[in-house]
Task: inverse folding
């Protein structure tokens, strides 16, 4: 097999490093350090391998428009599947009790896989050469996903409707607020 794209090779190595690292860290309480949970140890994680397989094989596949579309779809499925899997596992490990002392956090594997999926998506969209309207639509969906993730982490997005800067909003005028993106 012949190597067709060195960038895809770097992304495949990043994806492989993420698959080998612990995806989640679970601790029974805040005093004990957590133990890492790898992807194969998590129930229901097998379906996450399906979108990762084309991403791992992409450096050796002949580039085409259809392949780039498939890789973009697989990258989106992987990124969103990771969030879904992490949420389901956190709920399962916590026992569903909101007062539980157990804590589940993202591990290095989660962040490496998210980075690989997002970079793969950017690389695939660059190669697709989409029209301006399609590019704007995809970027809008990505920005809304970013705001949803920030809200989930406890940050408020200070951009009303995710577009206007906080300091440009009449609600914040004259209060001495500095421009910035995130705050607790």
Result:
């Amino acid at each position: 097999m012949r190597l067709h794209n060195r960038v895809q090779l770097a992304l495949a190595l990043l994806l492989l490093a993420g698959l080998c690292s612990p995806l989640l860290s679970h601790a029974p309480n805040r005093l004990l350090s957590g133990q890492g949970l790898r992807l194969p140890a998590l129930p229901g994680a097998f379906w996450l391998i399906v979108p990762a397989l084309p991403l791992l094989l992409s450096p050796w596949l002949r580039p085409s428009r259809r392949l780039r579309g498939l890789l973009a779809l697989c990258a989106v499925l992987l990124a969103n599947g990771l969030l879904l899997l992490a949420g389901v596992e956190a709920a399962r490990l916590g026992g569903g009790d909101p007062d539980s002392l157990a804590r589940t956090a993202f591990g290095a594997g989660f962040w490496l896989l998210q980075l690989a999926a997002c970079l793969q998506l950017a690389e695939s969209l660059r190669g697709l050469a989409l029209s301006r309207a399609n590019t704007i639509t995809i970027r809008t969906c990505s920005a809304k996903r970013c705001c949803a993730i920030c809200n989930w982490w406890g940050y408020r997005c200070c951009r009303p409707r995710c577009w206007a800067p906080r300091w440009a909003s009449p609600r914040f005028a004259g209060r001495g607020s500095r421009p910035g993106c995130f705050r607790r």
